[in-house]
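Exercise 7. Given the encoded structure of a 113-residue chain, write a plausible sequence.
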């Protein structure tokens, strides 16, 4: 194999390795997210694909699709307990339980729907 072909092959392998590393860093732990939603009582008002008194995770993902700061916005929503409208009434949104990594995983799960 010539040096040029070897160099091209080596670069391609390095790019592929970086891409795989980035993908694994972004992998969502679905079981942990579902457990965190249940523990935080999110499932009382939300589900994956059906609206309840709150929007489905699928609908939330559609709302934030393509926004670079989507994860940060969801993290803030999950951790601050903002006032929201439920059946026309003001209600304080429950705060997610768990550490920062758990809440980020929850946000990533929602965005993956």
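Solution.
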């Amino acid at each position: 194999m010539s040096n040029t072909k070897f160099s091209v092959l080596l670069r391609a392998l390095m790019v592929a390795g970086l891409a795989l590393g980035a993908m694994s860093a972004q992998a969502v732990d679905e079981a942990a997210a579902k457990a965190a939603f249940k523990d935080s009582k999110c499932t009382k008002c939300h589900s994956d694909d059906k609206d309840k008194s709150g929007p489905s995770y699928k609908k939330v993902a559609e709302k934030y699709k393509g926004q670079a700061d989507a994860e940060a916005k969801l993290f803030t929503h999950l951790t601050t307990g903002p006032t929201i409208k439920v059946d026309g009434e003001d209600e304080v949104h429950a705060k997610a339980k768990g550490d920062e990594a758990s809440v980020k995983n929850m946000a990533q799960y929602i965005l993956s729907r």
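Remark. The mean pLDDT is 86. Students should compare their own answers with the one above.
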